[in-house]
Amino acid sequence: MEAVPQAVDPQRVAQSGSAVMALVDEIFPLVEGFYVDLHRNPELSHQEHRTARAVAEWLSRAGFEVATGVGGTGVVGVLRNGDGPTVLLRGDMDALPVEERTGLPYASTARGVDADGNEVPIMHACGHDLHTACLVGAADLLAGAREQWSGTLMVVAQPAEETIDGAAGMLRDGVYRRFGRPDVALAQHVGPQPAGMIGHRAGVILGAGSTLQVRVFGTGGHGSRPHTTVDPVVIAANIVNRLQTVVSREVDPKEMAVVTVGVLRAGTKANVIPDEAYLEVNTRSLNERVGRQLHSAIERIVRAEAAASGAPREPEITLAQETGVTANDPAQTSALAAAHRAYFGDAYVVDLPEPFSGSEDFGAFGLPGDDHPIPYVFWFLGGTPHDVWAEAPGESPYEKLGALPSNHSPFFAPDREPTLRAGLAALTVGALTYLARPVAAVPAAPEAPVAFGADGGTPAESAPTAVHPEPDRVPEPLPDEQGGSTQRADMAALLDDDEPAPAPDRVGRHAVGGGDLLDPPPPPRGPVHGTETGPSEPFGRPEPPAGPAFPAPAPQGPPISAPPPPPGATPYRPESDRELGLDEPPQGPPVSAPPPPPGASPYRPESDRELGLDEPPQGPPISAPPPPPGASPYRPESDRDPGPDEPPYRL
């Protein structure tokens, strides 16, 4: 790639986004059902076979060239639509070994076997089901509105984000060599911020992370004769205690660093001193220098404690997982945030003042360390219901965030409809930031209404509390930008708590009827093929989800009334009425229908003629057959007298 593609003007992106999102009501029931099905049927890292099959089938039906088995269970879809840049949209598919406790009617009860052979519960506790549903939904929307954009759309459904090795696996499998190198990569992640809110940050937005596996050795023996042993449990305990001083006494206080011992295993019986102990140590930092410092300190302490206890063998220290910081390209982040503000409105897009300490492997798609790295933008999508956010304890957004169920919690449950709608729009507008056609090449989109909040006010009046205070924005709004949103009516209630609208009949590419949650109705239009790394099985109709049907959630909050018209406004009349003069009073005397021509027969419905109801009866009258011997004459139920023990019938 010679240069990053020039981002399209934000207002132009918002207009294209409005035109594309006009299709959202056609596919939203399918996207929502797809999300619910994925939530109910989660799969662990590197085991996303069912999810990958469903994603591949959806993309194929939308017209993408699809490859499966990329880097294990990864899926890549490519849609070429003329000249222009290549934009990569990424979503992750894997779930966590967590037992769900949300109480949702579609909560997961799935169980599986992890990489160590242990049976574990499985839950989408990090929102990857929502990421995947938004990914295929945005791909479908863009495929159905190709007149609005030009270029190549590359959709990547990534496995194994939770083990932070899925992106690296796809890159090792030659994802760019085989399917093309993107000009920019985009991704989003749901979090505990208010539902529908978009959070951007230029530069570092997520920290680096690593996991070290540590095995220390001792000399086992009887618990009654500890003097004849070297106790690895004591060595491990000393390591845990000493590691707590690394951040507090070795890392500069101006730097962020975390060291956590998440796994400690040793022994099988109280009176048996074991031969070894096992630990897993996790680190987080916001730059590579501090990360290297943490690794060096951990290794030094582990070896020193083993030596101090007289261990018979050197400890084994293995770097099991590692990912660098997620650092957004500043220029592309500014361009994308401006496009999101132009579409959603200023009230729904915030600038995050500081990074989060969590880690992601999405940054690997940017090829850090390469001579020509690929710019990328990663943003946060709020998922907490507004009433839950409002009732959360704490005065500041930071205090509320600390009190709410967050990612990896067994209680993590994004607000389904507003979060899905916002995620669909955010990915779609993100792609159009680079792919949207010039104004002259596309029919002008109709002006969209301003989004109104739950109290009927404008976004500026009724927006949810910002997760973080907003610093001065870069770039400044365009001169003709009035702060309102240019999104279409389907996004007007994005953050409202009103009753969801009934799903309309689906027409066009998604006709009514047929298909389960993993089988969108339109016929396949793109080829699906496996790869040398693991060809997928043929895409048939997947099994329908198990379990009872689930009801839609009850509406929250009072009904929402439309704002009153401004003083002096005339009532709205459809354009078609004005063109036909249907809103004008009739002119002249009443017009009567002309008399029928001589000899014309009166009108009879076609059904009467088919049944012969307009013909005179033929032959003698037909009498009913006599009743059989002993039959009592028919009397209506109301005429029969009640029995001696029955009360008289009363209406």
Automatic annotation (TrEMBL):
Residues 636-651 have a biased composition (Basic and acidic residues). Residues 452-651 are annotated as: Disordered. Residues 212-307 form the Peptidase M20 dimerisation domain. It holds the Pfam family Peptidase_M20. It comes from the Bacteria. Residues 541-569, 586-600, 617-631 have a biased composition (Pro residues). This is Amidohydrolase.
